[in-house]
Amino acid sequence: MNAFYTGFRTFTLVAAAALWMGCGPQGGGGASDDLKPAMTGSIAAVMQERGLTEADALAAVRTYTPTGGRDPYLLFASGGHAGHVVVIGVPSMRILKYIGVFTPEPWQGYGYGDETTALIASGDRYGKSLTWADTHHPALSETKGDYDGEFLFINDKANARIAVIRLSDYTTSQIVTSNLIESDHGSTFVTPNTEYVIEGSQYPAPLGGGYAPLEEYNDNYRGAVIFWKFDRASGKIVPEQSWAMELPPYMQDLADAGKLVSDGWIFMNSFNTERATGGTLEGEPPLESGASQNDMDYLHIIDWRKAEAVANSGRTNTIVGMRVIPLDVTIEEGLLHFVGEPKSPHGVDVTPDGREMVISGKLDTHGTVYSFEKIKKLIESKTYAGKDPYGVPILPFEESIRGQVEIGLGPLHTQFDGDGNAYTSVFIESKVAKWSLADLKLIEKIPVHYNVGHIATVEGDTVSPDGTYLVSMNKWAIDRFNNVGPLLPQNFQLIGIDGPQMQLLYDLPIPLGEPHYAQIIKADKIDSVEIYTPIGYNPVLHATDPLTVTAGKERIEREGDEVHVYMTAVRSHFTPDTIRVKEGDTVHLHVTNVEQAKDATHGFAIGAHNVNLSLEPGEHANVTFVAYRAGVYPFYCTEFCSALHLEMAGYLLVEPR
Amino acid sequence: MNAFYTGFRTFTLVAAAALWMGCGPQGGGGASDDLKPAMTGSIAAVMQERGLTEADALAAVRTYTPTGGRDPYLLFASGGHAGHVVVIGVPSMRILKYIGVFTPEPWQGYGYGDETTALIASGDRYGKSLTWADTHHPALSETKGDYDGEFLFINDKANARIAVIRLSDYTTSQIVTSNLIESDHGSTFVTPNTEYVIEGSQYPAPLGGGYAPLEEYNDNYRGAVIFWKFDRASGKIVPEQSWAMELPPYMQDLADAGKLVSDGWIFMNSFNTERATGGTLEGEPPLESGASQNDMDYLHIIDWRKAEAVANSGRTNTIVGMRVIPLDVTIEEGLLHFVGEPKSPHGVDVTPDGREMVISGKLDTHGTVYSFEKIKKLIESKTYAGKDPYGVPILPFEESIRGQVEIGLGPLHTQFDGDGNAYTSVFIESKVAKWSLADLKLIEKIPVHYNVGHIATVEGDTVSPDGTYLVSMNKWAIDRFNNVGPLLPQNFQLIGIDGPQMQLLYDLPIPLGEPHYAQIIKADKIDSVEIYTPIGYNPVLHATDPLTVTAGKERIEREGDEVHVYMTAVRSHFTPDTIRVKEGDTVHLHVTNVEQAKDATHGFAIGAHNVNLSLEPGEHANVTFVAYRAGVYPFYCTEFCSALHLEMAGYLLVEPR
Questions:
Q1: Which option is the CATH number for B73-276+295-524: 3.30.70.2190, 2.60.40.10, 2.130.10.10, 3.30.2010.10?
Q2: How far A220 CA sits from the closest chain B CA (Å)?
Q3: Among A191, A392, B588, B607, which residue's beta carbon has the most beta carbons within 10 A?
Q4: Which of residues 111-130 of B touch A (CB under 8 A)?
């Protein structure tokens, strides 16, 4: 407990006493009777005028960040089917950046220049251009189980893809996809030293993209978990060193990596162990019903270090280029065990000490705390309660858990602080519950508005959570904000958790995207460049571009119908500013922003040609286009860069053939 | 002046006095010596811990909006080359929505379904697909010179396009483009009853998209201003009723419509009356230099009611389908006059009473106040100082103005309050200046951070500005926020202007896009629907979709290789949830969200097919795709809609041929 909690009321009593004793000036009204005497100062006057309570005013000063101020924490959230990542300062709750990932985003020039277009296209599947994604779970890279601030990974649930974002400049640097699975959800999660980025499938399908009738679901549809090998030195996932495990056709869901004592293991939950397949127009119950018949689904317990050894031993089948450990080998080698988990679980969360795993079922009222030590002993002693239809051994539930905590209706996702407390979102009640890990007792619930999905505490997925703030990622906003049409923003609610009681501090509307999951990192762990240096850096190449243009060396070179334009940008002109080509020419534009002043970004756009670049200080970009039609097309700088920004322009002159 | 300004200091003195007299509890420290005695309450403790000043705390309570609170004002900003529109609550400065306009945006499903894809494609030029835009100037629809909250218009500078957004549901409903001009900037602006949406060209080019060498600039390049006729009943621009005026090849810039006494006129400024064309690689000075030689550019004064009559009289040339009044007719009919405007002007702003126009030159230190009455008399008496090279009469500068106000270095854009004050952004000084319209005296300047472009006051472009807040749209942020890489957010600074001194209240980073201009409207003027009713509304059609699906009437119909799927979505299943087609089939999906609960949005996505819809309550959407590859593809709801949202899924089964 700190001084924050001695109460605003103290101030009002002091001021009231002063007034009563004739110490202060008279005047002002009051928001409530007992506050009236205090409403003399300007803060009190504003509170009255705006209808703010004492708690509101305290929340205001706890979150307000004056000009030039910095946030101690940064939240990284997925953008859902907007296909990007959102960066938010905590506690100011100001959105600082949307990072383009799978969806083209022209402000960043992302998906418009040659390299970023190729980067997005590298995520195409079966040659089909994919221009959006459903990003779900961002994972910060870790060292020894702590966020290290170097990389961020993010999945695409819809198309089973993974992207790597470099936090050294907040840009996407890689997109990988295998055709092994058709959708993912248990991703991305990382092992404690980011050896692997985990991608678990969601909706089963024939592995490798083949066709099988739905009637062959049990036999020919499968789940899988892919272990994407990450190479920190190059900052890239190495597909050739990655491998996967075949899983039964349940709907695998979220995952978490063991840490400390449980390092070397991953835990992944699942639903629809009923193997229902819907059929609403064919006389069958919908999946929501068919998948909710069993009281228990299966927590998947995977010994990934042992699996890695098996994969490297060659006991794999190669499917669409991916080494896959078949289910029979998995069972034979003891790589996978199941244990029951209560109804409709969503997520499994390993405690900071790595000793326990917390799981909640949305149709159950409990949080269940599994003991890694107990589970390991059961595995070692081969104490099974049975096997699933595919032969995977099932551990006895009661012997696997330490206990359960009664949370409420629809518990969903659990995070932790550094003081031994757990926080669980409660979807149906629209609350966040705080409970004690030590004695499994509910401590407190705070209402949130409304339908909370995931929650994030500061460094809450690490071995050392910070325990200052919690963000409740509410799926519905309903009556929280001004009406801006039938598509509502999501609502991120900031909750202070460093006092004796949880305090609702701020409602942040998310104006674009439907974030699903977030992680919060201490801001000073990230060391991003402010400009690109030396001049000529290409973020996608992560190197100086070989076609970088030096001031004074600008030129236009023609080779047949191919025209290469080597251009520089500097406040406030392009060189060259006149480009003369012939109709049908292919134009290769190589532009270097030769600025080295922070924030001296230039844009480059040509009308009617869909050409659009964003050139940060020192950045080089290339773009290729066909001069498809004779005419006169202005080009100009799209970033307001100086008083003479409007004059930073030129012409593309396309002469008729 | 109101109670806000009696000063936080009053409170501290009261509390200090109380303490000194032994009235209150002891304890706490102090942010500064004279505050120490007051630092007992929790607000004071937080202020000390977070290093907040008195002004900071006051700004905090002036802007903080507690959960469920509403903003009295909404700001609509362009998104620059991100191609969208941003909606921000004032004073909370929370971004409430990004509205997709020219750029596809998957969260909204915008540019993914059949109708929204066609809508974006309707803005293609010369058959070239354009997937981004450079949005610059949003204009709210007006009635009698006041914002009426019905529509918003926005331009695309890069490709000379205009979009119409319905504020009844915050969606884009129309995109128009003519091939008359190649870029625009003096757009969008509306006449006082939204009779017309004005689009002025920026960079001259041969009218109608033809080719002419740059050497023929003076003779064959032209500017133009298009008067797009708006039909309020249908909510659409009517291209056939629209017309344009040919202008000399200067770079026409921002515009404003006259109002009240000056209703019937528009004013448009310009730069590069030198007709410089750059040539940085060809031994010529850059445009920034060539266009800055003259001391004066030309304010364009257009009598649009007279021009409308001329256009309707048939004295036009039809160029690429647009009726254009030729420059010689314009001159002969007296539709256009020039008057000098000081160096590098950007924008012309008509005062709320319609009597005067304020112009600033970025390379001049003054604001110049033009008198409409004087100008009208000079026009009536044909008192000219000369003619431009094309024969356009030039009015004498000194006789056209009431006077000038010394503002500072780089004055740029002027807005107004309701008390006779003007506010001008000062780009080079990074300040906002407040000055008196009555006596042309500078009152006060407040620093902003940094490089302010446009500013917006509440209802500042209307006949009745509100005068409560001003937003400074700063182009650079430099050191204001956490480092998030070399591409920085813009910085919108909220300034309180309802007190005797301007107060900086809030810094809002803009995380996506580079807004150029904004308008702020009273929120209660906009009446948006919360759900679509009756069920089956298609926002692009602005009507019930003829293919709407009723619950119980879901079906799959095959016609040769064309498969029509009539589907409903409701928590938490699709009907049908199994779609069986053959490889090569064209699938037409017709989906109705039959929900009528607010916020009960469903998404619909199919993996590997780039299919993605957002279905607000009651909305119907259609999407067509080819089942291009045999396989098994999950589809699912992408909006977290219920506890069993993950189970809202099904399969597209593509059988091999």
A1: 2.130.10.10
A2: 11
A3: B607
A4: 112, 125-126, 128-130
